[in-house]
Design a protein that fits this description.
This protein has helices spanning 4-18, 24-29, 51-61, 90-120, 139-148, 166-172, 179-188, 206-210, 224-234, 251-255, 266-269, and strands spanning 35-42, 46-47, 66-69, 76-77, 82-89, 127-129, 162-164, 196-200, 216-220, 239-243, 261-263, 276-283. It is of the alpha/beta class.
Length: 285
């Protein structure tokens, strides 16, 4: 999902935003011949993500800068751990520093939060997945970070799968068709490879939705008792997803109801950036 062309495109745009006409400070204060060595150091514990993105910030600034990644995406780290080492022209290192840190701090924060959710449900069969509540333009990076933390990805975009929510069903049934008939008509117009998921917010909606031949049913904002009842009613015929009201205090109990998937918007919209620093030593040359 996150390939080199995509990384370079996003990182180049960030560098251009940060230094549209160059780095005035570094170019006026740092000798052109100066070199630098910098260590990416963890100030707190977490799970690493975004190593290739971090490296791209320096590579695209000055291709003479070398970045050695000492931790792989998904690796746990402790305070003081060195996660990457950067060497090369000092001006370029200083210019790229903030953009490289911004990305890997954000991505490592998402990975770390995701890992906490995954740990809470590890004793169950439920998988933790993200949502489309991502930073515009950074979805591929943020979803990569979710996988770094042991989570899984939901559909990447509106083009990837059908997910019918209450507003969709209201429009579909406005002509007087039943929910089942309306869904069946829509499914008949889809390619056979398209996955169909339907959201319900009441137990009494489940049977009509299942009768349409869908692939996944989302139980939205259900109580724990209703989640258990919903799982029992579905009886393994389709994938059951739980959504709404999910946080680190509730996710374990939700997973223990027997649902297959738990979608968590907080993985990407509420993760804080981790405290990572770049410790730089400069040789004036």
């Amino acid at each position: 999902m996150m390939n080199r062309a995509q990384i370079d495109s996003v990182v180049a745009a960030a560098l251009d935003e940060d230094a549209p006409w160059g780095d005035l400070t570094s170019e006026s204060l740092i000798p052109e011949t100066a070199t630098a060595r910098a260590d990416l150091v963890a100030r707190e514990s977490g799970v690493f993500s975004g190593g290739e993105v971090f490296a791209a910030a320096f590579r695209l600034t000055d291709d003479r800068i070398a970045v050695e990644l000492l931790a792989g995406d998904g690796a746990a780290f402790a305070p003081g751990d060195v996660l990457a080492r950067v060497t090369g022209p000092a001006r370029g290192v200083l210019t790229a520093e903030r953009i490289g840190l911004n990305f890997t701090q954000r991505m490592s924060g998402i990975a770390t939060l995701t890992a906490a959710y995954v740990a809470e449900v590890a004793h169950t069969g439920a998988r933790i997945v993200d949502t489309r509540k991502t930073t515009p333009g950074l979805r591929a990076f943020e979803r990569h970070a979710v996988r770094s933390g042991g989570g899984h990805n939901h559909r990447f975009s509106l083009s990837d799968a059908v997910m019918a929510k209450d507003n969709h069903l209201a429009v579909l049934t406005a002509t007087g068709l039943s929910v089942t008939a309306a869904l069946q008509g829509a499914i008949a117009r889809l390619p056979h490879t398209a996955h169909v998921e339907v959201e319900v917010d009441r137990l009494d909606q489940i049977d009509a939705v299942l009768a349409a031949g869908i692939g996944t049913i989302m139980l939205d904002n259900f109580s724990l008792d209703d989640l258990r009842a919903g799982v029992e009613r579905v009886a393994g015929r389709v994938t059951v997803e739980a959504s709404g009201g999910v946080n680190l205090e509730t996710v374990r109990a939700i997973a223990e109801t027997g649902v297959d998937v738990i979608s968590v918007g907080a993985l990407t919209h509420s993760a804080r950036a981790l405290d990572l620093g770049l410790d730089i030593a400069i040789d004036a040359g």
